[in-house]
Amino acid sequence: MTYCVKRYYAKREVELRDSTNLRRKSGNKRVKKQIITLALLLIPMWLSVGCAYYNYFFNAQKHFDRAEKTRKEDASVEKNKKTATALYEKAIDSAGRMLLYYPGSKWEDDALLLIAEAYYRAGKYRSAIGKVDELFAKYPSSPFREKGELYKGLSLLRIAQADSGRVILGQLAAESTDKALVAEVYFGLAEYYFQDDRWEPAYDQYKLATEAGSPDKWLRSAAWVKMGDCLGRLERYEDAVKLYDAILSERIPRRLQFEASLQRASALRSSGGSEEALTICEKLLKDAAFVDDFPRVQLEAGLCEKALGRPEAARKRFEELLEDKKQGATSAQAQYELGLLFWEQWKDYNGAVTALKGVKGAERTAAAAPAADSLLAEVETLTRLWMRMRFIERQQSLIDSARTGLRPLLLADTIWVDSLAAPPKEKALERGRKGQLKGDPNDPIRRMVEAAMAADSLAKDSVAADSAKKTAPADTVAKSLDSLQLVAYDSLRRADRQTLFFNLAEFHLFKRRSNDSALYYFEKLLESGVTGEFWARATASRAYIARSQGDTLASDSLYQLILDSPPSDAWRNRSLTILGRDTPPPVKSQTEALTDSAEAEWRVKGDAEGARMIYLLAAETADSGDTAAARALFSAAYITRVVLDQDSLAGQLYSQVAERFPNTIYAKAAAKHAIKAKKKAPGKDVAPAEPMGDEISDKAEFEALMSEAPPVEDLEEKIYEAADVDELPHMLTLPDIVEGYLRSYYPFDAYPERLRGEVEIEVVILSNGEAPDPKVIKTTPEGYGFDEAALSVFKSIEYRPGRVKGKPVNVKIKQVLIFKKPEDQ
Question: Which entry of 269, 281, 292, 311 is 20 to 30 Å from 386 by CA?
Fold first, then answer.
């Protein structure tokens, strides 16, 4: 009993002690909770009173980190780009408020660097450079100096000051001990080269970025994947596949794994492994983690189906991709591939044109846009030529039917194509319900056929009537076919067909680079019995194709064929040159002979007076165009002024050159010298007492003009002034795009002073649309780099050539480029 009582009290004591400890612990927890709550209430108050500037910076850093995460997830997805850019803008705004409200705070240099980096990531490179310079000016010994140099160098690359940027980045890579920063230098340089389509240097820089030893796993993996992309663009597909195999065997971020798998599929397709590539695409389409990238995968799968010879399956994939009507480069590429299928596989003109016109609707600046424009022009040109050919064939069939008297065949022929003279949506001829022929009533062949049909009908009625009366057939008044007219129409249509064969052949040879198709049409042309110039050009083109294929024996035999019966001296000389034989010297014209005689009188015999007389005679009897006459008259004026010191007469002769031959290369120099001569000799009867004093410069100019001038100017080689052409060159690049170039290339030296720049450029737009040698003739203001920036912009502008009588020619024009002030951009 006593034991039991003791146990009871002992147990009760323990329970009481445990209860007390539990209450004590519970009380401690409540106190801690109250302290934490109080702290959470007091800390923001303390920050708002004593460290509010840090609050702004904290928010800026938070937005920046979220932007970086979004960018690394995938910057190729359009919505990710916009989201990241918006977050960078928020970071810039928050950090900017801290600098505005709390200047001189201890986080100021951090904020300046963060703004500079955010500007760079958002694509505002000049603003990034401005913030870096502000950081360096306020904090010369800032610990963030290397980071600032990094973003300044990378930004300089983007504003057409690549040399300065490379110097800064090269110095950073050589001197910095920060491996992460060195890796960013190489990665930034690689990105610059990659976007400039310079794949080999981009590959080298990406490789250096992977080898720099950076702790940033994402950067190393991204550089590794981009190396494979460069190999693919260099068409080293097997090396790219091996590299992607190595990448996918390592642990890298899942986003980059997806990118490597998709690019591996592309490399496999390009190297002949389309079946395996399609399997990879199907597997990627089942991964719902990357639903925003499904259009890219679907595009690659469609290309695989096309490579495997399954056009219907490829078409289905492309159309499924375009069902959502999303904009962007992927949709543009799908439209282009769809247009290719319609044109190459099914010869569907309407489908091809609709798809190709949709490329720019998806994204005007897409990489597929120039190829789509080129293919669209090809489709329209070939279709027009084929429709014309079909029309000619139908007309020829009609003529042949009329000549052989097969009139019932004419009545059954109801398939007619559009005549070039008729509206495009109306048929030239079609059969009505009662058998009447409808169409252009002025078509001579139609009128002739109707007359033949009427004659046949009258003849049949007459024979039937005479048979009923059992008498001989009566004479009919029906009009018979005009055989002479038929022969004329027949010759005309055959000539049209030969011209079309030739146009088709040259289009395939020079535009499509398809030797087999060109050869087919050249052979059809030769089979048609063509003669003269067309025959020589077709034979020479066949020889050119044979030589390009390495068959020099066939090429030489074809040129020998031309040499045996040349249509002109030019073709005989050309054939002799190709065959390596001596060409006889050309026979000189009367003007050339007189010019040579004048040269001999002046330079050999020293008889300047006699030379002048012969030059004037050559100018009056010029038989090779304005250039020869202008050359002779200019020479006479030069002798008169420089050798004979007769400035009044020289001025008159120079004026004649400028007035009579304004389109020659002598006109401008002659006008200048005519003004000099008038100033030197103002009176009509007053002869100058002494020379004009600039014989040395005149001689150099004269010799240069004599050496440059061709005896006869060819239409294709002649350079026209803007006032002398029927159609001026037209800028194909859209104004908005040109404005973007001007903003991007605004010179860095002019940025601090916020200057407006104006540059006038003179350039010759060649007949092929190229502008190879632009020259700056005026820059306002000078010395700030506007001239160099303008030339860089001009290289990105495309032109349609000017025309004379419908033919593209070389035209000299002046173009003014205006750089707006930074605040107006």
Answer: 311
